[in-house]
Design brief:
By secondary structure, the protein is mainly alpha-helical. 52% of the residues lie in helices and 3% in strands. Helix 8 crosses helix 9. The mean pLDDT is 91.
């Protein structure tokens, strides 16, 4: 499988796949959760090393703000908090180019992103889709999962 890292392509495909992905979500919820998690974790382990996050940095440009000021202050300059409190996406104040300036001390949410190693993938797929269009890792894992589960063939039936 070709790994897609072009953010414009990912965004375009994500827009085209909206209905397909919501149908895929329904399909996933009908599957054995542990089985899906096993496949997703393996795909994540295969795909993640093939993607250089320093060539992207898109997650840090598209943070989904947390509502509390205590959490927001980690990512946003204090003067900007009220403006971004309800924004869909903001750029992290620690991003320089595509690199995190506090990488070794980065916040827990940043350490955990893109959350592909977590369990209950099928039940949290709506949240995964929020990252599908901004993160090449998430995009490629989801697309590889569709191939592995022969989703296109099942959809045609």
């Amino acid at each position: 499988m070709k790994i897609e890292t072009n953010l414009s392509n990912i965004h375009q495909i994500a827009q085209q796949n909206k209905d397909i992905n919501y149908a895929f979500r329904t399909f996933l919820q009908e599957q054995d959760s542990d089985w899906v998690d096993t496949i997703v974790h393996r795909l994540n382990d295969e795909i993640t090393p093939k993607i250089n996050c320093l060539e992207c940095g898109n997650c840090c440009r598209n943070l989904r703000p947390v509502a509390s000021e205590k959490e927001l202050i980690k990512y946003v300059h204090p003067a900007e908090i009220e403006k971004v409190k309800y924004a869909m996406a903001i750029q992290c104040k620690h991003l320089q180019g595509n690199a995190c300036m506090i990488y070794e001390e980065r916040h827990e949410e940043c350490r955990l992103f893109p959350y592909m190693d977590r369990d209950a993938f099928a039940s949290r797929f709506s949240g995964v889709l929020q990252n599908y269009e901004i993160c090449p890792i998430v995009f490629n894992v989801v697309e590889a999962l569709k191939v592995e589960l022969a989703w296109e063939k099942k959809q045609a039936v």
